[in-house]
Amino acid sequence: PGWAHAVVGVLAASSFYIYLTHGVPVHMMVYQAHVTNLPVVVGAALAIGVLTWLAVQRMSQATAHRKPVDI
To answer: How many CB atoms lie within 10 A of CB 14?
Structure first.
């Protein structure tokens, strides 16, 4: 289905950022908040990684038209 293709596409595109950021929510939820529900922890880690990817994409698009600074 189309929605599954879209979900897999977003997760694939953001996988590097999921990898980079997953440690923070997992540590905070498991060791600080003592959350033992695995789907909640994984969902939070995925959401933070995808949101980080979206933020980087938007910043990249917003600054793409700028000229490089000569030093």
So the answer is: 20
**Average of per-residue pLDDT across 25-52:** 96
Rounded-to-integer distance, Cα 38 and Cα 58, Å: 30
Distance CA 4, CA 24 (A): 27
pLDDT > 90? residue 63? no
Q: What is the DSSP string of 26-63?
A: HHIIIIIS----HHHHHHHHHHHHHHHHHHHHHHHHHH
What is the pLDDT at residue 69?
81
d(CA 48, CA 26) in angstroms, rounded, equals: 11
Using CA atoms, how far apart are residues 41 and 26, in angstroms rounded to an integer?
Answer: 6
